[in-house]
Records
---
Amino acid sequence: MKIKKGDLVQVITGKDRGKQGKVIVAYPREDRVLVEGVNRVKKHTKAGTTARGSKTGGIITTEAPIHVSNVALVVEKDGKKVTTRVGYRFDDNGNKIRVARRTGEDI
């Protein structure tokens, strides 16, 4: 998967189109990423009590994973943030390095 944890991405389709956020978690087996502030859903949690006796539960808002094909990597070019595709190259030691296709710079 070309998108990694900590990358800045922009949503390119769906209800949150145009929003940007950092990748919190990447799920390569499911081809999904969890992006902060994107695809927020309401979850109903069961009411209960903590050890101190305070009530827990209710409706909480949290992020849900989004498919990796619906996000694009964001890099900075001439002070502006632009979306780009990701390519790969090998350095002199044979290490694989991610490259921004639009700018040609290493990520």
Note: The mean pLDDT is 93.
---
Amino acid sequence: MRSPRTMISVGAAIVSLALVLAGCSSGDDSGAGSETGTLKLWHYESANGAMGKAWDKAIEVFKTEHPGVTVEFERKAFEQIQQNASMILASDQAPDLMEYNKGNATAGLLSSKGLLTDLSDEAASRGWDKALSPSLQTTARYDEKGVMGSGNWYGIPNYGEYVMVYYNKALFKQYGVAVPKTLDEMTAAMDTFVAKKVTPLGMAGAEYPAGQLYYELALSKADRSFVDNYQLYKGSVDFKADPLKYGADTFRDWVQKGYISKQSASLKAEDMGTAFIAGKTPMIVSGSWWYGRFASEIKKFDWGTFLFPGNKLNAGSSGNLWVVPEQSKNKKLAYDFIDITMRPEVQTIMANNGGVPVKADLAQVTDPKNKELIANFDAITKSDGLAFYPDWPVPGYYDVLVAGGQSLINGSKNPDQVLADLGKAYDQGVQEIKNG
């Protein structure tokens, strides 16, 4: 979820589908340095974010190495791509290269429809398969039914991401709260804030944050077999039992105790993030995609991060994928651009701006916070602690999760009812995938 996990800066326009489909470019697939034509590139990273800055550098390098090629770059909104990808990629207006969300419900679905180019040969010949650890490869490969973890390569990630707790150090100091190391310490810290009439945890019920918190709470009681069953269909999933029941019950309990505002049901992730930037919120539970933006925009107080207390499993994965639409007119140019984004010079820019690169020169990372961010991700991957995201298992599940999160916040449904809705949509989706 972000899977709307990468963020557009405030004021980015949501362009209509008509504009999305506007314009079509063609080009030549001849050798590097001699090409002419156009590379049509779309992504949805903010200009001041880590990936946006790194990929701006990649565009600069690409232009230098391909002087006869014009780069037509368009920054899209995440939801714009999320909602219209199948329609866009089935048309002759598809870009040559696009950032797209990973997982069964997104990249997996498009690959099973034949809308994405098989990148397996390029991954082998260009060494991408060696640059990415097995856990990061999970989201790059999909079988014929669009289930991640095996099969051909349909996307290439060049960064990682994971969910953590961001906290306002000034507010923690003001109210005498220590950084929690266990879930019990986390609830005690939130009790302290509530006693001072401060809502401790920022939230956004209208988009992904609520679902991610529910999942983090469930993961506090989960093991790898649960993740394999839930995400990869290796076994059955019981929505009436822990860990999912614990996740929903505890989420609702946190709302009732005042840890989460009931008014947050209608808020979007941007609202949650800007409130934290403004210094109004002690904590938010969200992803590393915010890190670069917070580093750039927070000037009036010190802030930090910690892993969700006590969890051995955390929501996270490779970052979003570079995908090459099957309708791409310049596939060779697209492959060349992907390759540039994997280079240490581009990866190090990402690292120094709050990103989580897969192949940076860490000796060139200067900021202690950035080193901590990358070190925490390395620790998670080395312990097999990436649990992917709660909306990934089946197509359309993101909307079901958002609705469930809103219900838990506003109290329109109790946890058992929400879990019943989630279970029904999950079971139906899994059956549809298994039946082809």
Note: The longest strand covers residues 160-168.
---
Amino acid sequence: MIIDQADVIVTSPDRNFVTLKITTADGLTGLGDATLNGRELAVVAYLTEHVVPLLIGSDASKIEDTWQFLYRSAYWRRGPVTMAAIAAVDMALWDIKGKAAGMPVYQLLGGASRNGLMAYGHASGKELPELFDSIRAHQEQGYRAIRVQTGVPTLKAIYGIAAQGADVGDASVRYDHEPARRGAKPVEEDWDTRAYLNHLPGVFEAVRNEFGPDLPLLHDGHHRMTPIQAARLGKELEPYDLFWLEDCTPAENQEALRLVRQHTTTPLAIGEVFNTIWDFKDLIRDQQIDYVRGAVTHMGGISPLKKTLEYAAMYQVKSGMHGPTDISPVGMAAAMHLGLSIHNFGIQEYMRHGAKTDQVFEQSFTWTDGYLHPGDKPGLGVDLNLDEAGKYPYEQAYLPYNRLLDGTVHDW
């Protein structure tokens, strides 16, 4: 299966996506997701100028060898741009191998370990009535677990609140599904950690009183707290039995999680900004986290994330793969195949893509009674409609950023 063509396709139906399409001499094609939200063209350049020339004439069946070659031969390793580019190649080669075998990728990874993947959705509201309505809407859509994000009094616009879209950009697009706003400069949002910490426990008390003790609830701190602030929040949320507290402090400082863990039994999830097993290794070994939040798209593909999760299984740490709408349907399909096959699956983040995106990327996965399944179509189960993709050219977009009340730039 010799590769004789590799194309990088950029399309922006509901948001920007970067897709690698590899074609073999015998006509097999494979797709890979290389989307890096807000920095898409950096990955496009890496693929087009540096990776694609290396693929032409190589054997598409050599997935592991190709991965090691792309990772090691560059010398300058790791980082989101490099690993997103390698991930696209890895996914596309698994897609081709599945098609050559006439089997879905999860069968090649060892077969299904479960019937489906429990997923969580994103409920949010500026105030409690709006939040309650959002939770009920997600339950009606079949979600069995729900992430809760809430507005904070005195703050105009913060991460994860769907209804604030009209305040910060295009009101026709749900803000939590696409916080990156199209334009020449990023949108500025505001932040006050003290106000957030004082407000949030009361929100979860109200949610538990309204929806009872059995609904799994999650929350994303989005890297905005110091370790001691995160420890306080985790402890104060213990009465409300969270499924997890995500990204409670900036992930770059792995020692920070040790302090948080010492002060709370609230389960911790982290890693959506990680790129290799080396970012997770000590956190897993030292039992400082409960869920691996890595994304197939940003961790170098199916091959290395499978290895990371197998390592995590030794320590009873489970998967919680990143799955917002800046992971394209190709990347989501890859996550579903991997999640279905591993033993230590925990939960899958799932945000529904917009109608335009679903026309560009034709998908075979199913969503039934709160569970995802990638389907049994050979390969990853996603086809790219090039005619539809061509209708939506790239548009410059940036994720927002935060400033504190005194004007200091802060983690978003």
Note: The chain has a mean pLDDT of 95.
